[in-house]
Amino acid sequence: MVKYGLDYTRCRWILPLLLGIGVIFGIIALAGQGWLESQTLPYVQRASLWQNCRRPDQGGEWSCESLMGYAWGRAAAATYLVGFLLLVICFALAIIAFAIDTLRFNFIRGIGGLLFVAAVFSIMGLVIYPVKFSSEIEMTGINMFSWAYGFGWTTAIMEICLGFFFCCLPNYEDQILGNVKPTYFYSSP
């Protein structure tokens, strides 16, 4: 990407595309029912960021209670949601930044800083949830933090990695814009 510059049409939209994938993963984590699930048969417990569901036996009905009744449940949901909203804002800003013909590299560095703030909020929510869930809610059987929780961590890791890339990209401004003269290592005999 640095070799051809950001004006190279196929490379220009890689960063906003990766942010868009992070937004999709965040939506899956927010809407998914698989933050915590029973690991073995009979499946008696499953939880999302918003609620905890149980059933007494294999054929019974699921009974759900909201996690918003707990202070830690509201804190975990709020911090993860703030991190997700900051990610969406970064996605919109990245589309604007890369749609402009002349790149504003300080603007791009600001997006990187905002991604780090989003990662901090996301990680706070992802740490509060399992610690308080496992200590305050009785779990039966063998349980595991499952696929939707993994999508939440994938979103947080993407925020950190893309934050580094957005912050470091302005350091290569001359190479990206093609303002560097080539140096030749030739010595005459």
Automatic annotation (TrEMBL):
Location in the cell: Cell junction, Desmosome; Cell membrane; Cytoplasm
- Any GO CC annotation of this UniProt entry: desmosome
InterPro entries for the chain: P53_induced, PMP22/EMP/MP20/Claudin
Question: Which residue windows are coiled coil?
Answer: none
Which UniProt key words apply to this protein?
Apoptosis, Cell adhesion, Cell junction, Cell membrane, Cytoplasm, Membrane, Transmembrane, Transmembrane helix
Q: Which domain of life is it from?
A: Eukaryota
Bilayer-spanning residue ranges = 12-36, 77-100, 107-131, 151-172
Keyword Cytoplasm carried by entry:
yes
Q: How does it sit in the membrane?
A: Multi-pass membrane protein
User: Of which family is this protein a member?
Assistant: Belongs to the TMEM47 family.
Q: What is the protein's given name?
A: p53 apoptosis effector related to PMP-22
- From what organism does this protein derive? Alaudala cheleensis
Q: Which gene encodes it?
A: Perp_1
